Amino acid sequence: MSSVRYERRGASAVVTIDRRERRNAIDGATAAALADALERFEADDNAAVLVLTGAGDEAFCAGADLKAIDTLAGRIDDPGGPLGFTRRPARKPTIAAISGWCVAGGLELALWCDLRIATSTARFGCTERRFGVPLVDGGTQRLPRIVGLGPALDLILTGRVIDAARAFALGLVSEVVPPGEHLERALALAERIASYPRRTLLADRRAALSALDLPLAEGLELERRLGRETLADAAAGAQRFARGEGRHGQGVPGTPSL
User: Fold this and answer.
1) Position 207 pLDDT exceeds 80
2) What is the DSSP letter of 80?
3) What are the residues whose beta carbons fall under 8 Å from the beta carbon of 146, sequence distance 6 or more?
4) Of 7, 39, 58, 108, which one is the catalytic site residue?
5) Is residue 39 a contact partner of residue 6, using CB atoms and an 8 Å limit?
6) Less Cβ around it within 10 Å: N or C end of the chain?
7) pLDDT band at 68 (very low <50, low <70, confident <90, very high)
């Protein structure tokens, strides 16, 4: 049986790491299967969002399987990254649905995703610090961008583990849900994202991600250029609003019914 399951659920492609006996830690075969899963998602135009999760409630992913580290050694220079796809940007939105341990390379996989939904039982940390294993799946680059340099260095240098409440306070996760509800919440969020005009959504996402390393002026120019390509969609949306759709915040998450 494959250590990675791929299934379509509504607008989502759900990719599940399934090595429960190893807290969903990743060996070479699992890394290759994750890379294949991303390829499958990218090739499926009907899959609007990728939801990455771990089997069971004990762990999202405990990182590289240190008992099988020899199967990953040859992947250090892999263009996709040692754990499968961490050096490859996804063309479409991605969500991590997290329960339990999300540490070491597992944290790096979660950081690769655009959004992270976690249960109150989730735990996060760069626990590979104890064993001299480097962060080579994007952790040193993505963590500071998401939570800021100070909090990122605290986690990277100390190897300490934080709970879901602290992760939420840092902006590491966007939402904390009760145990067992992480996947369904991620799927519901994916459906909402998929319901929006796709071309504009993808252009805005690309502008935000691509401009991270650009000076403000260049980032604004990229935003302008990508936005210009979606003016027809914007005009159609404005017409829908003019006809009464979406008035008084209707359809906006968190807006009370009026």
Assistant:
1) yes
2) T
3) 111, 152, 171, 172
4) 108
5) no
6) N
7) confident
Measured distance CA(209)–CA(162) in Å, rounded: 26
Above 90 in pLDDT, residue 90?
Answer: yes
Q: State mean pLDDT over 121-136.
A: 90
Question: Which residue carries 């934080």 as its tokens?
Answer: 162
Dihedral sign, Cα of residue 174, residue 54, residue 36, residue 42: negative
Asked whether the predicted pLDDT for residue 256 surpasses 70, the reply is no
- The third-level CATH classification (topology) of the domain covering 4-194 is 2-enoyl-CoA Hydratase; Chain A, domain 1 (3.90.226)
Distant-in-sequence, close-in-space partners of 49: CB < 8 Å, separation ≥ 6? 11, 12, 13, 92, 93, 94, 95, 190, 193, 194
Q: Any residues with CB less than 8 A from the CB of 257 and at least 6 apart, and which?
A: none
Catalytic residue among 7, 128, 184, 191: 128
Say whether 128 is catalytic. yes
Cα separation, 74 vs 156, in Å, equals 24
What is the per-residue pLDDT across 102-117, written as a single tens digit (0 to 9) for each? 999 999 999 999 999 9
Task: Tell me the pTM.
Answer: 0.87
